[in-house]
Design goal:
GO terms for molecular function: DNA binding. This protein is α+β, with helices and mostly antiparallel strands. It contains 1 helix and 4 strands. The protein has a domain of 79 residues. The radius of gyration is 21 Å and the shape is flat.
């Protein structure tokens, strides 16, 4: 199994220090978990094929495909207690994607916007 990401480089001591500092700040400022929000963004490669596959003994390799780079940027936000989750934000390339041509953008379960072209 291949391990990727930041799992192996986690600094548990720093995380515990941060947790203590945050709890102290929440007490000092008289904040509750309902008032503390966190947002995170990530890339979603929605047409990405697996990088590994099974081949039979007769084959020397699997047929190759060019990896799709189609992706959305997705942002999710919730309060620390998990009682209030904001509607997610999806950012794509197209103002009106072909897959959504018969769907009203405002009817989606997420806020959708497109990335403005720079330059």
């Amino acid at each position: 199994m291949t391990t990727c990401g930041e799992k192996l480089s986690a600094d548990f001591e720093a995380a515990n220090e941060f947790r203590t500092e945050l709890n102290n700040l929440m007490v000092k400022e008289n904040l509750t978990e309902e008032q503390l929000y966190n947002c995170a963004e990530t890339g979603l490669n929605f047409k990405r094929l697996p990088t590994k596959s099974l081949v039979s003994r007769n084959e020397k390799s699997a047929p190759g495909f060019k990896q799709s780079k189609e992706r959305l940027t997705v942002m999710c936000c919730s309060n620390a207690s998990g009682t209030h989750k904001l509607r997610s934000l999806a950012i794509g390339k197209s103002k009106k994607p072909c897959a959504l041509k018969n769907i009203a953008i405002h009817a989606l379960p997420v806020f959708y916007t497109n990335q403005k072209t720079l330059g």
